[in-house]
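Sequence, please.
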């Protein structure tokens, strides 16, 4: 088994002493090395500064640091999609959208530990907001009648200082021989731990499985067997929206869906 290509992501959200959140996603793959930085107001989540760093590229060597002004003044929260889309054109780099998007996701997750700053009076009030907002969106929030752990039962408590949230992701492609490949994806963060394994004939899935090693509730783990639905799917020909449908939509796990989508994107990058 020969390793052909791998990509690694690290997202970190820290609270500073200046009422700002310092958030970044560092990315390293076989061809590239880049970082997306955000400085965000701890109360409003308004982006005060966005910075793009590039240290290594598969094309002509770029070693640059620049301000990403289309993101200045945008809210680093749900609904930031239009501002994030402008980043690709501004930097002439579609990868920038993925990295800044991951950084925003990290900030949303860090809200768990910013209740008073975000206007919540209690953990129960925060939970209620998510029950209403996220209802039907994933395995957990589609099966609240079966859930035995609340969010803060899983997290522990709502007090953190300094480092608020971290997430590691990695995807690797291995050659098995005779046009057969193994594609793996792993995610480990402050709240979740997920693994997927895809055996491919070319880009067509022959076997798929995975596991949720750590999740808010045992009901979340029921999303893993849905990976079997990927059998015979061509990963080069399916959109993320279609992929979400195959993996259960609201009865699936958003982190499994994201991880499989990341793996599919790896195939496109490796073929470039």
């Amino acid at each position: 088994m020969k390793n052909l290509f791998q990509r690694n992501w690290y997202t970190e959200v820290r609270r500073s002493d200046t009422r700002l959140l310092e958030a970044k996603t560092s990315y390293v793959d076989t061809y590239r090395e880049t970082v997306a930085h955000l400085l965000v107001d701890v109360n409003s989540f308004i982006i005060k500064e966005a910075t793009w760093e590039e240290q290594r590229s598969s094309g002509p060597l770029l070693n640059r640091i620049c301000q990403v002004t289309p993101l200045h003044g945008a809210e680093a929260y749900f609904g930031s999609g239009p501002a994030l889309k402008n980043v690709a054109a501004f930097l002439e780099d579609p990868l920038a959208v993925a990295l800044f998007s991951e950084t925003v996701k990290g900030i949303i997750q860090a809200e768990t530990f910013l209740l008073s700053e975000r206007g919540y009076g209690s953990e129960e009030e925060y939970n209620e907001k998510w029950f209403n907002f996220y209802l039907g969106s994933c395995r957990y929030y589609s099966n609240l009648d079966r859930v035995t752990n609340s969010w803060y039962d899983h997290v522990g408590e709502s007090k953190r200082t300094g480092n608020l949230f971290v997430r590691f992701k990695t995807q690797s492609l291995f050659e098995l021989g005779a046009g057969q490949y193994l594609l793996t994806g792993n995610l480990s963060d402050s709240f979740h731990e997920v693994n997927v394994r895809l055996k491919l004939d070319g880009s067509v899935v022959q076997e798929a499985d995975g596991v949720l090693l750590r999740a808010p509730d045992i009901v979340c783990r029921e999303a893993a067997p849905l990976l079997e639905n990927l059998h015979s799917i061509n990963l080069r020909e399916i959109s993320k929206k279609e992929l979400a449908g195959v993996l259960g939509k609201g009865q699936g796990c958003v982190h499994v869906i994201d991880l499989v989508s990341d793996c599919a994107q790896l195939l496109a990058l490796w073929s470039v």
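Residues 165-271 form a domain with the Enolase-like; domain 1 fold (CATH 3.30.390).
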